[in-house]
Amino acid sequence: MRKCFTIFLISLNSYSFGQTKVELSVSGLQQPVEVIRDEFGINHIYAQNEHDLFFAQGYCAAKDRLFQFELWRRQATGTMAELLGPKEILRDKGARLFKFRGDLKKELNHYHPRGKQIITAFTDGVNAYIQATERNPDLLPLEFKLLKTRPQKWTPDLVISRHQGLLGNIAEEVSIGKLVALLGEEKVKDLIVFEPGEPNLKMDPVIDQKLLSAPTTELYDAFRKPLSFTPQDISLSANLDLNQYNRLAKADDEAYQKLMETERNTIGSNNWIVSPRLSQSGFPLLANDPHRALSVPSLRYMVHLNAPGWNVLGGGEPTIPGISIGHNDFGAWGLTVFDLDAEDLYVYQLNPQNQRQYKYQGKWEEMRMIKDTITVKGSADVLVEHFYTRHGPVTFLDLKNNVAYAMRCGWMEIGGAPYIASLRMDQAKNWEEFRTACSFSHIPGENMIWADKKGNIGWQAAGVAPVRKNWDGLVPVPGDGRFEWEGYLPIKSLPNVFNPAKGFWATANENLIPKNYAHRNAVGWTWADPYRVDRINEVLSSGKKFNTDDMMKLQHDYLSIPARTLVPLLQDLKSSDEKTESARQLLLKWNFVMDRSSVEAGIYAAWEKKITEEVLPLFVPENAKEMVKYIPLTRVVEWISKPRKEFGADATAGRNQFLLSTLQHAVDYLSIKLGNEISTWQYGQINYHHALIKHQLGNAVDEVMRKKLEVGPLPRGGNGSTPGMTTNADNQTAGATFRIVTDVADWDKTMFTNAPGQSGDVDSPFYKNLFPLWSNDQYFPVYFSKEKIEKAMKEKIVLKSLR
Hints:
This protein is α+β, with helices and mostly antiparallel strands. It has 24 helices and 32 strands.
């Protein structure tokens, strides 16, 4: 039966300068709920029961992020073509193909013993606000008017959609398979860093390697790619300058492709914990800065949830109930990505007499088929057929060659929705309860850290970890029954540590597999470059005692270890070009800090860029140059530090010439980009390293509207290898907008960042109010005690039950 929610405004009054109080009656609540919004836009929700707590969380999140909710709903349900027309048919087909189709009740209750009730209450709250917009369309954010559309209601199955998650390595697996076919195993191992140990990249002879050039994962790729809007999609304020639109769209696409090429090695996240022994307060410290694509509104939404059995504050994705990263009364926690491989591409031989059958263990098996209808704006409905093998969704049918490709995905099984198991973490009281909660967290693979009031710190790798007995999961394999997962490794058997002897623990997506680890066949092979974590460990092992100011400073530490390694190699060299020689001498006097005001940092960033570009033709064979666009910086630095024959007969002399020529090319590049005066080459500036957070509709609307929707630009420091990770591109398109630093001695002193703001409504004062703080590496407090929260109050809403 369809639930109906009604909202009435009871009263609105100003009771203090800059503060307002609103009372609303909402059907669906059991008891009144108090929502205090602080000066930074964070909602502190006080409910008298669990149902009302999550109802109010859904209501407040939808109020702040309604357009974000609607886009995620359409992506989850595969209904983008209904809004944007035929160009989105393939995306919709992919989204529906990979939809979770298991036992929904079991799925919801995986995340919490009362998961079904909690998630239903959350979506009821979302729908209550959507119904308010139906009664009063003026409540709709601007984007709905630009697209001439309305939001639709939410159901619990949307919350557990996997479309937005960090899912796995399938793109890498396909790429490695193609490279092995082109170059052979040993050359691929030379170009890509695998660790620890040496993987088996041998392709099974049953697979025709030439056929891997087909779009084997096109339906998966289609639903995972970013949304793109065109001027034709816009009803008001459309961009009529199509040349400008095409230029902007092309630049965004190129930036995205570059980001995807380097993502695993540079983007990542940081977190660390410090024991009482190394803390000035005598209590543990915790810091976490997860790195994702920058967006407006932010990926993370902050909230404080308080009700009997619940008192938790922090951030998470807006469409998910609970808190993913934050603290409760007892402890704090955070996460970074840990490499677990829960995706495999299977290749099948089809029956020439019946191409809906594939060979498995010597017999023909019938694919399961689901018929579906996609509604398309401005066109007739499209009838589609989704095919599945015993392993999973069929992503490509090569009927000409009688071959099919399908994916097995650990995240399609019960418990595969990202971050929702945080509901269990939100109520953890100690390390063991936290570890148990982590055992329900399947996607993505995570480095979970914990620090508590009792003085304990710990790290637990978490996630769904398939056990492969006879292959390493890095290349496609036949789906004929010889390559099967042998179940999943229990999460508590993944690497972990409790109260480490050194007094701290840091993770930054690097290889953390212990020596002689017993379950090597259940963990990944490709990790981030170690530079961020090496710098973090360097600071934490200094022997000093730390406070929260130190932790905030470390989150924005811009010292580049690659620069500290490469620049000294210029010491005994000399350039015949005057300006290049001046640049060389400046670098040799530099402190290796990628400060935004530093000219030397500007020179180094351009030089590193030229090094990584110009090393490619030396080490990558001609037939692979279209596939290999980036080599991990650790490998490049290794080749340069210990010169190889690729630099020439005299490897050292060739390396030295390479360093000088790339430096000169960097100087030439900067002269064109920023002018001939070296003094104007400071790194952080609008024309060089900066942050402009683009709106999804930004390219498609006119200039006036674009400036209203977008946030920035402002100068930035750091790069892809510094703890303060800001990418290697001119415009920082990824990194940490949400951060937490806490001393568990006093939760009221916990510091955060989040950008550009809590609200996705461009007309809200909380749309981009946090961006100036973030861009200047500054934090804001979010209080935990009600006394301090009330002093920081900007607005109070009392939600009352409508009887």
